[in-house]
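Shipment paperwork, digital attachment
Item: protein structure file
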Amino acid sequence: MCIKEIVQKGLIEEKKEEEEENQSMKVQWILTEKSNNILPISSMHYVVSFKWYSKIVFEDKKIRD
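Attachment content:
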């Protein structure tokens, strides 16, 4: 998934700031409220995958705690 798709799904947003010292543009990517709400679910998905599906997730097929 590319950044454009993640922005379209409302998971991140772009924040631009002008830097006066060198007259350039500073760009930051910020998590949205939607993204912050699904972060705990995503984290649990990884934990379950690492523990119970290690044979699929890891080449060495060892369980991670």
